[in-house]
Amino acid sequence: MNNPSSSSQVRSQERVVQALSGWLMLFVTFLLCLAALAALMTGIRGHMGGGFILLVPLLIVAAVLTACGFFTLQPNEAAVLVLFGAYRGTVRDSGFFFTNPFNRRLKISLRARNFNGEKLKVNEKRGNPIEIAAVVVWRVQDTAQAMFDVDSYDNYVNIQSESAVRHVASSYAYDDGEPDEVTLRGGADVVSAALTRELQERLAKAGVQVEEARLTHLAYAPEIAQAMLRRQQAEAVIAARQKIVHGAVSMVEMALNELSAKRVVVLDEERKAAMVSNLLVVLCGESEAHPVINTGTLYN
To answer: What is the pLDDT along the chain (300 residues), one digit of tens a residue?
Structure first.
C-alpha cells in the first residue's frame, strides 16, 4: 500500500514546450473578426435570420477567446502553463506567442538576482558574538520546482540564505585560529565557497541555482568590540617586542663576535655580561638612552 504522504513529496520537474507563433494566430483572429462582420452585413442586407444570426455571436466569441491566448516573453523570462490545475509545460523562448486561452500563464524571471542580507548577530566557533552579512547571486533554474515545490521561492531564498549564513559563521572562528585553520577573516575565499555549497544544497529544492555568495560585513559585536580591539593591540605589541628582542640579541652576538675576532678588547665573562646588559637596554628601550662616558679604567 502506498504511503499517501510520499506522493506529495515528489519533486516537480520542468518540461520545456514550444508555443505557437502569436503572429499566425493574430492573423486567424483578424479573419474571425472579418467573418463575423461579413456574416452580420450579409444578414442585414439579405434580411435573413436563422443561421446568420447564430453564426455572428459564435464568431465573435471565437475571436475573443483566441485573443485571450496571446502572450509575450522577454529575454531571460519564462511562462509556466497550467491548465485547470495541471502543469502543461514551460515556454522559455522570447517573443510573441499563442497558447490555449484556458491555460494560466505564470511568468517567472530567469535573470540573475541579488539577495543582500541584513547584518546578523551570530556566535562564531569560539562562542564570541559577531556581526556578519552576505550577498547571494542566484537565478531560477527549474521553473516547475520554483512554482510548485515551495510556497514562495523569493521568500524561501531569503530565509534559507540567512539560515546558511548563520550556520557557516558558527563553523569558523573569527580570526587567530590554530595553525592552518581557516577563519572567517583570513579565509574569505574558502568561507565563500563553503557558503555557496551550503546554499546550493538548501535552495535546490526550490529549483534555484546559486552562482556566487560573498561576505559583505564581518565584525565583532559592539558589546565585545572594544575588548577584542585591546586584545588585538596587545597581540600586536607582543609580536613587535618579540621581533625587537630577537634583533637586539642578534646585534649583541654580532658585536661580541666582532670584538673577539678583531681583538679590539679582551673581556672577561663579567664584563661581557655587563656589555650585553647595556646593549640590550639601549636596543630594546622605548626611550632614548643617555650614555655615561667613563674617563677612567674599564674596571673602575
So the answer is: 445 444 456 788 889 999 888 888 888 888 888 887 777 777 666 555 555 667 777 888 888 888 888 999 999 999 999 999 899 999 999 999 999 999 899 999 999 999 998 888 888 888 888 888 999 999 999 999 999 989 889 999 999 999 999 999 888 888 766 677 788 888 888 999 999 999 999 999 999 999 999 998 888 877 765 666 666 666 666 677 777 777 777 777 777 777 677 766 666 666 667 767 766 666 666 666 666 655 555 555
Range list of β-strands (E), 141-245: 208-220
Residues 99 and 44 in one domain: yes
3-state secondary structure (DSSP) of residue 290: coil
- Domain end, chosen from 188, 220, 252, is at 220
Domain containing residue 30:
12-108
User: Could you say which of 183, 205, 220 is where a domain stops?
Assistant: 220
Question: Is 292 within the bounds of a domain?
Answer: no
What is the grid cell recorded at 157?
A: 531564498
Looking at the structure of the chain, the number of domains it has is 3
| Cell numbers placing 78 | 519564462
Cβ atoms of 97 and 20 within 8 Å: the answer is yes
How open is the CA angle 208-212-215, to the nearest 5 degrees?
120
The values of phi and psi at residue 70, to 5°, are -85, 145
CA 183 to chain CA centroid, Å, is 18
pTM across the whole model: 0.68
Domain membership flag for residue 4: no
Tell me the C-alpha distance between 259 and 298, whole Å. 15
Task: Give domain status of residue 3, yes or no.
Answer: no
